Amino acid sequence: MAAPGNKFFIQHRLGQSAPHHASFEALWETKWKPLCEMGVYPFMFGATKDFQPVVDSIVAKGLKEPYDWDEYAQCFFPKAEELVSSAEAAENEGDKEKASELYLRGSALYRIARFPAPRSEKQRYAWAKGKEAATKGLGLQDYPMVEVAIPHKHAHNGDAPVLPAYFHLPRAASESRKAPLIIIFTGLDGYRTELAVWKEGWAQLGVAVLIVEIPGTGDNPGNPSDPDSPDRVWTSMFDWIGEQAGIDQSRIVNWGFSTGGYYSIRIAHTHADKLKGVVALGGGCHHMFDPEWLDAVDLLEYPFDLAQTLCYKFGYGTDFDRFKKEARERFSLLDSGILDKPCARLLLVNGTDDEIFPIDDYYLCLQHGEPKEARFVPGTKHMGEPTSFFIILPWIFKLLEIEGDVRRFMSTIPFKPKY
């Protein structure tokens, strides 16, 4: 802890319970409905008119914590299937715009069905179907995003052999006209199927985009319980990037969101020579694994059981007691010495009142290793949204030496259904 008295900066909140944990109805009314109406995280590509009937059915069932995840997921399937069926019909009629929207709206329903992590059979089914719908929808857009299979050449110790990713390469990119690249690391619950929402703004600026999940989430091949597995995966990723003739290897930036920020801090130190700069938005590095923190966060800002989801993500399954006992020693970037290694240019951004990962971890980062850049957004919670985006985008524009209008870029993020 970095606050005076060896306490967390939000120590006074650790015993509280947020209202949205009372029931799904409370979650929807107090937290999720406004986000859905705006078409922003976690409802990228989502429409309230699609979700409201599903919410009504869940409320009628009285679902609340602890959830039966199969029962929860099943509620979303009929509407998702209806949208995908309509998308297929529109595609067969040659209406690419309508088909793309409907596929992506279907993928949004499947996403919330498997949220926050595919821990049950039907949630895993939702993840598979959501990928299918998202891949089709994104492939039909004016700036198409395609799925690529990156060989994990450095696989070891239980890693899988392939890193699936979403990739957009500007049409004008070539060996003689190379494009800069943004590598997006997704978070604990937001995967490539939804972080693809950031593609549009970068594509309009002629910037390539590669979106990958982090170990223990989505389709990342890294062994989630091996602290070194991300280093192997990213080495394989950079091997593949190095083979792309249209990418400017001297202008590659990594941006990690939330839990992805933990991996961005790590990659800034382990692969510093590959990166022009790194942004860690809302990440952690050490205190995020403190037992006291983990005991409290299931009832704070996160919509569901954050600590239990992290336990699953880091390879501990449902053994929370062992996760709480071992996680900091195994995964801390401080105790492992990572933070004291040379690093790429690194920007740390978060809200001061974050209840998902403590702002204390960014103070810790600033006290170790090479000097880093930081901006904390006062009085805001996790990731400091939306102010944080108006900090990060100009920083990246300047770093890559590109002209960009932040407000125009941000106007590409919210989703409003047309059909």
Automatic annotation (TrEMBL):
InterPro entries documented for this protein: AB_hydrolase_fold (IPR029058), FrsA-like (IPR010520), FrsA_esterase (IPR050261)
GO molecular function terms listed in the Swiss-Prot or TrEMBL record: hydrolase activity
Keywords of the record: Hydrolase
Superkingdom assignment: Eukaryota
Presence of keyword Hydrolase: yes
Name the record gives this protein: Uu.00g015930.m01.CDS01
